[in-house]
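Person: I keep going back and forth on a fold encoding question. Show me how you would write down a chain together with its backbone fold. Please set it down just below, with no commentary around it:
Helper:
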Amino acid sequence: MNLTTSTSGLGPDTGRGGIPLSVLDLTVMGEGSDPAAALRQTASLALAAERWGYRRFWVAEHHSFPASASPAPAVLLAHLARLTGTIRLGSGGVMLTNHAPLVVAEQFGVLNAFHPGRIDLGVGRNPGGLPAVEQALRRGRRTEDGAGDGAGSQDGGDFPRQVEELLGFLNDSFPADHPYARDHVHVVPKAPGVPVWALGSGTTGAETAARLGLPFAAAFHINPGQALKAIDVYRSTFRPSASQPEPYVMVSVNATCAPTAAEALSMARPGALMMMRARQGKQSALPSAHAAERYPYTPEEREFVGGWLNGVVHGTPDAVRAGLTDLQLRTGADELMLTTLIPDATARALSYALVAREFALTANA
């Protein structure tokens, strides 16, 4: 497959492992940390990821979430694009159920105008927050029949239509009889070169990507089992498009790398504890490794943490390389996107640096 001809920013394989690697940064907030400091750490990591040879650096959208200081991907990407020079930057993702497709197209059109050929637009359907946050985000939104949406009418079932509308705006491709074409509703500046990725840990995103001929980012780091099913659905139902003649799968995975296996496990535990608390309705900042080690887990909680850690590739550099290589073989991924929930910024950067060195990544010219 010749990946260099795709508009999705897909290039040749890089590194000793033959697996292109990218970064999904969540702008992690540890206990007692400062949001401004977390954002500066994201900027520093983006620069380092470029030096180390990662292909992409994506940022997330989370609202009113104590563990992340990244509620506005387009704003953050504008800053990162000014700092970096070659690495592709994108959203992992913009939660399209929270935003009018026209606004998203305009934001990424501006980003693309300043930084042509470097911007990815990943879109998902999870609202990125609790129900009360959804209501605050969507207040005043209206459905197609003109009724007020309350807190929940713009649900995941509307996602495929929203993606189609987004593509229509980005590519200026609405049919002549479409209301937006008749009324000359356009994105300024136009952004036909911005690739759109559908994200998902389940089948809705996969089906949308397959039907519209888009690359698919499978959120293995959120739900490993469902992500594997979604990949199968995507490949088996993919319809070629002008921009994406063949299916392309990027798998996001939680990876924690350290000089020793014990250190890696210690740094992986805080993410497991945070996710356990979230499942219990107790959102919190990312706890420290010390707090995660000393937490008084019940047997049920230990079972959850153990299961969650089974989905994390963690260990020494050679162990992480083996784990990532195995994941690529199991999923047939064309690319892997690494994310990590290490509370300490220095250890987080070291994890990515060790993986880059182990895979012999080479920075873009």
